[in-house]
Design a protein that fits this description.
Number of domains of chain B: 2
Strand content of chain B: 5-15%
CATH topology of the largest domain in chain B: D-Maltodextrin-Binding Protein, domain 2
Number of strands of chain B: 11
CATH class of the largest domain in chain A: Mainly Alpha
Order of helices and strands of chain B: HEHEHEHHEEHHEHHHEHHEEHHEHEHHH
Structural class of chain B: alpha/beta
Radius of gyration of chain B: 22 Å
CATH architecture of the largest domain in chain A: Orthogonal Bundle
Shape of chain A: globular
Strand order of the largest sheet of chain A: 1-4
CATH superfamily of the largest domain in chain A: MetI-like
Largest interface: A-B, 53 and 66 residues
Helix content of chain B: 40-55%
Number of helices of chain B: 18
Strand content of chain A: 5-15%
Helix content of chain A: over 70%
Oligomer: heterodimer
Chain lengths: 341, 408
């Protein structure tokens, strides 16, 4: 394509990306290095149905003057990134100095919101992603080998979990796994423990969230792999058969290598998605056991006093996290691209 | 029967028409607020006005959207229905207007204790009072032969008896869901033990104290008699447990308790046994382990004067004294409206007020403290850390947030 043609072809996309992706990221970045001005506090007399009281309130006139002179707020640099709600530099340093042994250090780390969230998020990402890829592959292979007449129906049902809105899907499961729900009661019966509760135990909550994510996202992997299977080189398969390859060997040496680029693609998308895990935590009311960076952002914005700077800093850290997570896959894709040239 | 219904419907529509005639507005009204029954009534009353569109957005997530929805100019919401906790966020961001002129012009039916004045200016109009208090099953307590508990210590004794007699496995209910609810239960217990969230007159935290530790230990003791999923139970889920007959004693909001057993499908013995009493004290203290609340409405700052006036008129129509003639509405809350005669459902909140319950603090930094409590206490409730450690975490989290917001 000529450079000129390419420029005009790309311009609308480029503009949209600049407006809707680059600018918001810049604004979040700016937000994360500024905090609100110091509040000018005064004591005033307040009257409510329960009587009058001297209480503290913010002096709006003085605060407005401060705001108007510097609308962005106070510049604090990376201050927010290093505070206890985020990287907690001072707390981690103190912990390192004071703890005897690594066990105590990691236990203390789990007590800090950012590291606790990362602990769950990374476990979730690295268990759910491979599991859903494997499950998606198995479903794709199974669907590909059933009779043509059944395929339509089976594909439709296999796709259902993906089409259910995550929040609704997790809510339905949340009620089913309640200790009085059908799955919860079944588990109690199976484990022979009437006090067993999925929602009250941290490890079980983690497992439940991971299983939910695999159930929810496997159809996505399935659809991609199923499409890939339609382009299988039949001649290679036939020659493998003639060479005496078993079904398993055919899958191992012909099908999987053929689908590798798609596996990379699904892994890329799903790593990104799973790192930003959010809806299941809200849907399952699981915040006491599992938090993620996205949940922290939601929580900072949802309190009676919103913490915009804290939420912005966590957002930037999420973007960095996704970039780090994707870098091996991206580097590999780039190498493949170069070697093909 | 049918004729009666038709007559009733006719009468209702007549009432509606006369109300509509009484309430004429000229500009847009848009209301955001919580979703419990009394607020639904106020919202519906405001919507009876004619002449311009009145929309309401009543949701449990109201406090996530009211500040952003009022910061724009013009503001999306012309009125926010708030309580003593959530007015602080609106005050901090300076998005609501003083109502003195409007009260003078259109506020005829208001009583002086309905006017929430901050620094001498009317900032909100309160229409109901609220508090958490005891809700219990009289039949179950009779069965074990104890009086309704007056203290949390008595509650523990009663809970043990109910469990030991095999009547219920988890007889205590509590809205202990991690987050806002858990923090609120801590606030109750903490104030009951004589604690104070902040050092006098300053934003410095002081929850890591003897009262804090005792409050947490009492909550832990209670949770042993709760459904093991208690950290996921908010008020709605706790009420569902009570309705299902799984819970016999609980600390519940007056605004929700009143209509607790009117839902469909509640077993007859729960309906018959349902009873209300005042809030409980704890640790031998005189102050109830509860907080007093008012609910009221505000008018946005960033709207035209015509919209503000229409909003005021419509909201006044939502809390007009004639509503107090309706028994169902009267039962929904402890109204502060002129002409309200208390129903039996109001005893809990009235007792709370008479016993000198402390109002929920209206401080600019209380919201940050509440969030910090909600995030950091669940580890203790699960037995993962000590009470002292949990309270230390709360203070550390609060200090980080307060520094960011410029309070420290």
């Amino acid at each position: 394509m000529k450079h000129r043609t390419f420029f005009w072809f790309f311009l609308p996309t480029g503009l949209a990306m600049l407006l809707f992706i680059a600018l918001p990221i810049v604004s979040v970045l700016v937000q994360s290095v500024f905090t609100p001005h110091g509040a000018v506090i005064e004591t005033v007399k307040n009257c409510t149905p329960f009587g009058c009281n001297e209480e503290t309130t913010i002096n709006q006139e003085a605060t407005r003057a401060l705001r108007e002179s510097q609308p962005l707020g106070r510049f604090v640099g990376l201050g927010i990134y290093f505070d206890r709600g985020h990287l907690a530099i001072n707390e981690v340093r103190a912990l390192w100095a004071n703890s005897q042994g690594l066990g105590q250090f990691f236990k203390g780390l789990g007590n800090l919101p950012f590291y606790r969230a990362m602990g769950f998020t990374l476990t979730f990402t690295f268990l759910a992603t491979p599991a859903l890829i494997a499950l998606g592959m198995v479903i794709a292979l199974a669907v590909n080998s059933i009779s043509q007449r059944l395929k339509g129906v089976v594909i439709f049902f296999s796709l259902l979990p993906f089409t259910v809105t995550p929040l609704i899907g997790s809510l339905i499961l949340f009620w089913m796994i309640d200790s009085r729900g059908i799955l919860g009661t079944a588990l109690q019966w199976l484990a022979d423990d009437p006090g067993l509760s999925l929602k009250a135990s941290t490890p079980l909550t983690w497992i439940m969230l991971i299983v939910y994510q695999v159930w929810h996202a496997a159809p996505f992997a399935f659809v991609v792999f199923y499409a890939g299977l339609q382009t299988l080189p039949q001649d290679q398969l036939e020659s493998a058969k003639i060479d005496g390859a078993s079904r398993l060997q055919q899958v191992r040496y012909v099908v999987v290598p053929h689908l590798t680029p798609l596996v990379t693609f699904v892994a890329l998308i799903m790593l990104m998605d799973n790192f930003r895990v959010f809806e299941p935590i809200v849907g399952f009311n699981a915040a006491a056991h599992a938090t993620s960076l996205s949940w922290i952002i939601f929580n900072d914005l949802g309190g009676e006093t919103r913490q915009l700077s804290a939420a912005a800093a966590t957002s930037v850290m999420t973007i960095i996290g996704v970039a780090v997570l994707l870098s091996p896959v991206l580097v590999r894709t780039w190498r493949d691209f170069r070697s093909k040239k | 029967m049918k004729l009666k219904n038709i007559l009733l419907a006719g009468a209702m529509s007549l009432v509606a028409v006369s109300a509509a005639q009484a309430c004429e507005i000229t500009a847009r009204v848009s209301v955001v607020g919580n979703e419990f029954p009394a607020i639904q009534t106020v919202g519906a009353g405001a919507q009876e006005c004619s002449g311009a569109e009145v929309t309401t957005n009543l949701t449990a997530d109201h406090q996530k959207i009211n500040v952003p929805g009022m910061q724009g100019n013009p503001a999306e919401y012309t009125s926010a229905i708030i309580a003593n906790s959530s007015i602080v966020a609106l005050m901090n961001e300076d998005v609501i207007r003083p109502l003195d002129d409007l009260v003078a012009q259109h506020g005829g039916a208001l009583k002086s204790n309905q006017l929430i004045t901050i620094n001498g200016k009317v900032m909100a109009v309160a229409f109901m009072a609220n508090a958490q208090h005891l809700v219990y099953r009289a039949d179950v307590l009779e069965q074990i032969g104890v009086e309704p508990p007056k203290t949390y210590e008595d509650m523990l004794v009663a809970a043990k008896m109910i469990r030991d007699k095999g009547i219920m496995e988890n007889p205590v209910g509590g809205a202990y869901a991690a987050g806002w609810n858990l923090a609120q239960e801590f606030n109750n217990m903490f104030l009951g033990y004589g604690g104070s969230h902040f050092k006098a007159g300053s934003p410095e935290p002081s929850v890591n104290s003897e009262a804090g530790v005792k409050a947490l230990e009492m909550m832990k003791a209670l949770s042993a008699y709760m459904n093991p999923d208690f950290l996921t139970h908010d008020s709605n889920a706790t009420n569902a447990e009570f309705r299902a007959g799984n819970v016999a004693i609980m600390n519940m909001w007056g605004s929700r308790a009143a209509t607790l057993v009117t839902a469909d499908g509640v077993p007859q013995e729960v309906v018959d046994g349902f009873a209300i009493a005042g809030p409980m004290t704890v640790g031998g203290g005189d102050t109830p382990a509860s907080t007093l609340w008012w609910d009221g409405w505000t008018v946005a700052k960033n709207v035209s004067d015509a919209e503000a006036e229409s909003t005021f008129i419509a909201m006044m129509n939502g809390i007009r004294p004639e509503l107090m003639a309706n028994d169902d509405i009267r039962r929904q809350a402890v109204w502060l409206i002129d002409g309200y005669k208390p129903t039996s459902a109001a005893t809990g909140v009235f007792a709370a007020a008479q016993m000198g319950t402390i109002p929920y603090p209206m401080l600019p930094y209380m919201g940050l403290m509440h969030s910090a409590l909600g995030n950091e206490l669940s580890d203790f409730m699960q037995g993962k850390e000590s009470a002292e450690q949990a309270l230390q975490d709360v203070e550390a989290a609060y200090i980080a947030a307060a520094k960011e917001k410029g309070f420290l």
